[in-house]
């Protein structure tokens, strides 16, 4: 098979790449990377960052999750729904806000699940502040449609949506925490329900309870080390 994806089901970044492949109907081989054990294939395919996800297509590696999504959308342009908006302005806006998601969410997200040191309370507040702004973005660009400016899952939906299972897992692990507060972010809460209810998304996104167990296992291993 000439298309391979190096990833992990527990990585929202790898979930992005896999979701794009499935939305486009691309056949691929999934190679799971085990935490703490970087394979030679990964190290050779991404020698700069040595991180998942990596798409290997015709022996050529493509790194960074949203770059992979763009590559999939462009190479398999005739397959499935278009992921990036066709309009140049809309496309620029989708890229801008996807970059905003990656600037604002991953670091506090890693603090909340214990991969980085820091205050979990402050990190959760930072994520909520980011989501409140994205609520206004959704209100402006949705134009009455189901997703960010469209009726099908697109670029910005993938960028943000692949964190949703982890948000729910964090809520399950922290009593009283409501990251996606429906009272404060009603549009985003409805969008999240639509995204997570999509059949293709269900094939890719891990269940929150699975992520909870994964997080607990990582916490035990961290203490032992």
TrEMBL record:
Gene3D superfamilies named in the record: 1.20.1050.10, Glutaredoxin
Start and end residues of each GST C-terminal domain: 87-219
Assigned protein family: Belongs to the GST superfamily. Tau family.
Keyword Cytoplasm belongs to the record: yes
GO molecular function: glutathione transferase activity
GO cellular component: cytosol
PROSITE patterns, per database record: GST_CTER, GST_NTER
The GST N-terminal domain, residue ranges: 1-80
Protein name: Glutathione S-transferase
Main location: cytoplasm
Keyword list, A-Z: Cytoplasm, Transferase
EC number: 2.5.1.18
Purpose: Is involved in the conjugation of reduced glutathione to a wide number of exogenous and endogenous hydrophobic electrophiles.
């Amino acid at each position: 098979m000439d298309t391979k994806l190096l990833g992990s089901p527990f990585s929202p970044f790898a979930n992005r790449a896999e979701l794009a492949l499935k939305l486009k109907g691309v056949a691929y081989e999934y190679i799971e990377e085990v935490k703490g054990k970087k394979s030679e294939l990964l190290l050779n395919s991404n020698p700069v960052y040595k991180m998942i996800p990596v798409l290997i297509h015709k022996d050529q590696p493509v790194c960074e999750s949203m770059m992979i999504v763009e590559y999939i959308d462009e190479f398999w342009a005739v397959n499935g729904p278009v992921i990036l908006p066709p309009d140049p302005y809309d496309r620029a806006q989708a890229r801008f806000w996807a970059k905003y998601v990656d600037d604002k969410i991953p670091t506090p997200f890693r603090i909340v699940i214990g991969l980085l040191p820091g205050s979990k309370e402050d990190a959760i507040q930072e994520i909520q502040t980011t989501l409140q702004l994205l609520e206004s973005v959704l209100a402006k660009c949705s134009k009455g449609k189901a997703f960010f400016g469209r009726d099908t899952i697109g670029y910005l939906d993938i960028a943000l949506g692949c964190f949703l299972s982890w948000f729910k897992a964090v809520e399950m692990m922290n009593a009283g925490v409501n990251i996606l507060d429906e009272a404060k972010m009603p549009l985003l809460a409805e969008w999240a329900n639509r995204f997570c209810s999509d059949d293709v998304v269900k094939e890719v996104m891990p269940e929150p309870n699975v992520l909870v167990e994964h997080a607990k296992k990582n916490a035990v291993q961290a203490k032992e080390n």
